[in-house]
Each structure stands twice: as C-alpha cells, then as structure tokens.
Design brief:
Mean pLDDT: 95
Membrane topology: Multi-pass membrane protein
Radius of gyration: 19 Å
Structural class: mainly alpha
Number of domains: 1
Cofactor: Mg(2+)
Order of helices and strands: HHHHHHHHHHHHH
Family: Belongs to the UbiA prenyltransferase family.
Subcellular location: Membrane
GO biological process, one term: ubiquinone biosynthetic process
Number of strands: 0
Length: 212
C-alpha cells in the first residue's frame, strides 16, 4: 500500500532470499532464548508457532486478522508467567491474555483504518473494513472487555490500589482516544495508534507500584 511502499522489501532494497536469511536468524535467536527456559515454557512457546506462521496469511481469508494478531502477539502473557513459575496460574494468565487480545483489537483496528482504501483495491481484509462506521462502538466494547479482564487478573493475584488506579487511568485514556478518533483521517489514526504506548507504560507502572 502507499504508506508502506518505502519499506525495504516492498521497495526492492533487499531480495526475498535476503529477507528469508534475516528471518532465519531472528528465529534462531528466538529458539536460543526459548531453550534457556524450563520445559513447560519450551512446550508452551512452541505451541504458539501455528499462530506465528498463519497470522500473516489471515488478512487474505478473514476480516478478523487483528484477532489472530492479538492471539499471537500476547502469548507472552502466558509465557512470561510460566518462565518464572514453571507453570501457568490460569486464573491470572487467561484474563491477562484476554485483556491483551482486546487491546490489540483496539489499536490494530485503528491502525488498519489508515490503509482501508488501498486494502479494498488489493483485496485484503481487516476489522476496519468489517466495522466501517460502527468502529467506535466495537472499540468501546473491546476496551470494556480489556478493563474488566485486567481487573479480574488483578483480583486473582491480589493486586493493590496502584494497579487499579492505573487500570482506571487507562480506561480514561482509551475513552478519550476512541471519542476523538477520526477514522477517515490516516494521520489521526496513526496518532491514536501511537498513543497506545501510554497504555502500556501506565499498566507497567501500575503493576510495579502495586507489587511494591
């Protein structure tokens, strides 16, 4: 698409073969990291490979590639816990994982609105094209599910006031983000997408202070 035409592979700065060599190096390094973990985590990490392999193809077969991205990208919510504990506390990990999936649906749907005109032309799908003018209602629902899941994860691991304060602040941030979003202006979609770094920072600070 126009926005990504200058990226190295699309612009022809690197060959397809060179990109596969680079990918092989990245995967090899990732395998080295994984093999440093406990056996439970090695198996759990390997279980994500089906998602990793199939995600790039999803925008050609479903209007919900953002959901598959969420399922893939947030696997660390499970793996991070198991790497420390040697197993998963599912009452905590699953709500945290679900919160991450919902968050991905929020920010990547906003991101997808940047390319919707080109996506229609080239025939790929996204939640932006699925939701159309109802996008804000869907984003509001995903945000609510995210916040409720974060609260459930917090309750199940005895989090404290700073954590819930951070979750509440995230709720305010997301509400403002969605309310002011203009889905027909790519530059505003990028600005709102990028502002999700604030969500991550707030949650991290809330977790750290909540534990301290």
């Amino acid at each position: 698409v126009a926005r990504t035409a200058s990226r190295p592979l699309a612009a022809g700065d690197i060959s397809t073969f060179q990109s596969f060599v680079f990918l092989g190096g990245q995967l090899s390094l990732a395998l080295c990291v994984l093999l440093c973990l406990n056996y439970y985590s090695i198996v759990l990490g390997a279980a994500s490979l089906s998602l990793v392999i199939t995600y790039p193809l999803m925008k050609r077969v479903t209007y919900w590639p953002q959901l598959v991205l969420g399922l893939t990208f947030n696997w660390g919510a499970l793996l991070g816990w198991s790497a420390i504990k040697g197993s998963c506390e599912w009452s905590v990990c699953l709500p945290l994982y679900l919160a991450g999936v919902m968050w991905t649906l929020v920010y990547d749907t906003i991101y997808a609105h940047q390319d919707k005109r080109d996506d229609i032309i080239i025939g790929v799908k996204s939640t932006a094209l699925q939701f159309k003018e109802d996008t804000k209602q869907w984003l509001s629902g995903f945000s609510l599910a995210m916040l409720l899941s974060l609260c459930m994860a917090g309750v199940n691991c005895d989090q404290t006031f700073p954590y819930y304060s951070a979750v509440a602040t995230i709720g305010v941030h997301l509400a403002h983000q969605i309310y002011t979003l203009d889905i027909d202006k790519p530059e505003d979609c990028w600005k709102k997408f990028a502002s999700n770094r604030t969500v991550g920072v707030l949650l991290f600070i809330g977790i750290v202070l909540g534990n301290l």
